[in-house]
Amino acid sequence: MKEKAYKVFVDVWRLACRYHFQILNESQWIEFVNDAEKLMERYKGAEVENLFRFLFQAVQSFYEKL
Fold it and tell me: Which residues touch 11 (CB under 8 Å, ≥6 apart)?
């Protein structure tokens, strides 16, 4: 379980880094959401699905506030 949680943290971090923690235009926002949906498929039904959802929600909120 610890390894799965670690993988979720790393995947969410890499997703956030991919967009350079900057203001996203509309096309970048769509790419960001699409990339997150692809990651979500990886964790759907897994023990760590909620962890992914909560972490992604935090990252998404960060980008929305920019």
Answer: 39, 42, 52
pLDDT of residue 24: 87
**Whether 3 contacts 27, CB under 8 Å:** no
> Model-level pTM?
0.81
Taking only the tens place, the pLDDT of each residue in 29-52 is 999 999 999 999 999 988 999 999
Amino acid occupying residue 28: Q
Q: Can you spell out the DSSP letters for 9-64?
A: HHHHHHHHHHTTTS---HHHHHHHHHHHHHHHHHHTTSTTHHHHHHHHHHHHHHHH
Burial state string for 10-31 with b = 16 or more CB within 10 A and e = fewer than 16: ebbeebbeebeeeebeeeeeee
pLDDT surpassing 90 at residue 1? no
